[in-house]
Amino acid sequence: MATSESESKGKIITCKAFVANAPGEPLVMQQILVQPPQKMEVRIKILYTSICHTDLSGWKGESEPQRAFPRIFGHEASGIVESVGEGVKDLNENDKVVIVFNGECGECNYCKCEKTNMCEKYGVNPMKRLMCDGTSRFSTIDGKLIYHFLNSSTFTEYTVVDSGCALKLNTEDILSLKKLTLLSCGVSTGIGAAWNNANVHAGSSVAIFGLGAIGLAVALGAQARGASKIIGVDVNPEKLTIAKAMGITDFINPRDEEKPVVEKIREMTGGGVHYSFECTGNVNVLRDSFLSCHEGWGLTILLGIHASPKLLPLHPMELFDGRKIEGSVFGGFKGKSQLPNLATECMKGAIKLDDFITHELPFDEINKAFDLLIAGKSLRCLLTL
Questions:
Q1: Which of 173, 126, 150, 131 is CA-nearest to residue 43?
Q2: What is the distance between the alpha carbons of residues 215 and 25, in angstroms, rounded to a whole number?
Q3: Signal peptide: which range, if any (predicted)?
């Protein structure tokens, strides 16, 4: 049981967390110590958290050349601010917040630039494993350091994050907060890729490679922008039903096709799509995605996490055909200043978040949630603390 909130302000909290002690080993529930927030930090009581493939990759030890364990993973979550550190002016105790892994300080050159959503201080950095001052806010009961993950670490009853990574939401409805948890990563990344990075236009054609939560969010974003043909590519036939419900107009399973996927898509679209989105993290799929775009104007948005050291499978001269490729981080959204508009649209029903929540489990069953994701049976499994 976590320390009482009324007694916790400014003190160390003892609470329950799921800790990864080694790559690929089941997460272990244990009591940990959580330090008070330091300057420009907030401590948050987590209410809901979920798992995405980035957590899976980090847990397996795939995404970093130097693995940091023990560690608390998780980066999609919502909760309530328990206490604030020195200098924090835009957040207060009891504020309802969504945690974002790609933060925004609002003061650096990156934040002031309209052409990027990166932040010099709080931007996502997969190699970062401690707070900005080089220390951790987590430890075991006997004082052993526990590492942070992606500016977030949400598989715990309480976490500490930089204030630039916590987005205040104007909602008194806890059920709304539950749904808006999905804006922490996957849904925002997919919709933003369609709206901000690609700027999908009405009547356009789109191909999406990989129909997990991010790929399906791309589909919804493209549908909202009026795309006329949205082709989904996935090797899991079970994705067909939900894909159709989320805007996919045509479904291709490469294992069922006699022709290469690129050739199939070009035939369907008169030479290729306007926009393609690579959501798998597979370099061979990236090549298919790129070549599925139309010569002269096709744009590929790279969303998949490529942990492998393999380089882009493109010949430089292929870029002279007029196709372009662009990477997307958090869908191009500036977390603090732009994401509230998406939250408002979701609350109005423009984007149906409920469809992404395929499973709900208590926090204690987090390892089952990992199994569901690995088996390809869930989009988002929401864990309730």
A1: 131
A2: 28
A3: none
